[in-house]
Amino acid sequence: MQKRLLLTLFLTSSIITFSLLSSCEQLFLTPAPASDNASVFDSMWQTINEKYTFFTFKRIDWNAVRAKYRDRAIAARNEQELFSVLAQMLNELQDDHTNLFATFNISRARPFFNDSANFDAEILSRAYLRNQEWITGSLTNAIIERGGKKYGYIRYASFISGLDTASWNTVMRRFRAENVEGMMIDIRNNGGGAINNVFFLAARLAKSRTEPLLEMTKNGPGLNDYNAPKKVIIRPDTAAAAQEFRYITKRVAVLTDRNSYSAASFFPACLKAPEFDHVRLVGDHTGGGSGLPIDAQAPNGWTYRFSGTKTLIPAGRITREQALAAAPRANHDADWAIGYNFEWGVPVDIKVSMNLADRSRDAIIERAVEYIATGR
User: What mean pLDDT, rounded, does the chain reach?
Assistant: First the structure.
């Protein structure tokens, strides 16, 4: 993913001058770090031990992980075997923001949810878009008609794709000209991307200045060593020329599923603030990904990344019941006094599951239409 907070480790080389003395030569050089299997494993394990942010939340015993994998790493007969062991260790973090990078491979965390898919591009195309959609920048948009009324639909497939004011304004003009009852923003199967695109969308839906999130950064080796929570502030453009392009007077349904990850969870998390009381999340809980990744380098030159921050929805906006519905295995008490940690998902407001065997309808879109029409 792009748009993340990265901690880059810079290697600096020192120029060491030396003198030839009458009795001997002395050359003082800093020795290169050991790159044997044990050193690579120990360096990586210790760095994560000191800087990873979700051990308590996920109930992970990192010492037990060390005992499980260290001997296997030492016994690895070549780079490929060592890579495989280290990748398996990383995946114990149950975090899609973790990767190991070598010249021959990149490790990838796999989804940890067994929820069924809640998006089908073919159903969307055949039953709803019908080759009538506009492709306006990164916003695929269409008009859906039900019961003689019109509803705006936007498909935003990836937060990697840039958002621009001209494209957004064009879509808003279209919806206004069609006199839509409200609109849907579909971010199902959206794996994330740039955080600035989250704030772009949120600023156009917020009714006023809002403080939707709290960020915490690890600042020491202890489990509870964090900086004080920092407020994330979103300030909508209040200039007269921007007012007609803010969507704040009609209902909005944001369509989510378990594959709405990282930035596609940050955006729904923002929408839990009171300044978005006209917006509902419809579909399934998001996939999570509330930590921004930091980078590190192993002694053998491989690089890796893992979550070095955590982001919370301020306390009082998510109920305990909602938290357990989205993340039943999490230790919510770890952060509950400050806020809800959405590392394993933002709770949906209106839960709907698709029946993929029915190729004629998307139950999540249909339920979103119902919310826009009735407010329920």
Answer: 91
Pick the CATH number of 37-101 from 1.10.8, 3.30.750, 3.30.230, 2.30.30: 3.30.750
Superfamily of domain 121-289+345-374, CATH level 4: 2-enoyl-CoA Hydratase; Chain A, domain 1 (3.90.226.10)
Q: Residues in the chain with pLDDT < 50? A: 1-30
pLDDT tens per residue, range 226-261: 999 999 999 999 998 899 999 999 999 999 999 999
Give the β-pairing of 139-146 and 149-155. antiparallel
How far is the C-alpha of 287 from the C-alpha of 326, rounded, in Å?
Answer: 9
Largest CA distance in the chain: 99
- DSSP-H helix ranges across 246-351: 263-270, 320-326
Cα–Cα distance measured from residue 170 to residue 179, given in angstroms and rounded to the nearest whole number: 14
* CA-based end-to-end distance of the chain: 35
| Per-residue tokens: 122 | 């073919």
What gap in Å lies between CA 51 and CA 36, rounded to an integer?
23
Number of Cβ within a 10 Å radius of residue 320: 11
Question: Kind and range of the H or E element at 325?
Answer: helix 320-326
Neighbours of 244 (CB within 10 A): 11
- How do the domains of the chain map onto residue ranges? 37-101, 121-289+345-374
Kindly state the helix (H) or strand (E) to which residue 155 belongs, with its residue range.
Answer: strand 149-155
Q: What tens digit of pLDDT does each residue of 256-300 get?
A: 999 999 999 999 999 999 999 999 999 999 999 999 999 999 999
Q: Let me know if the fold of 37-101 is the same as that of 121-289+345-374.
A: no
Alpha-carbon distance of 93 to 294, in angstroms, equals 14
Please give the Cα distance from 261 to 159 (Å, whole number). 10
Q: What angle do CA 286, 53, 254 make, to 5 degrees?
A: 15
As a whole number of angstroms, the distance between CA 364 and CA 350 comes to: 9
pTM score: 0.89
How many Å apart are CA 72 and CA 60, to the nearest integer? 20
Q: What are phi and psi of 107, to 5 degrees?
A: -75, 150
Supply the pLDDT for residue 11: 29
Instruction: Please give the radius of gyration of the chain, using alpha carbons only, rounded to the nearest integer.
Output: 24
Residue type at 373?
A
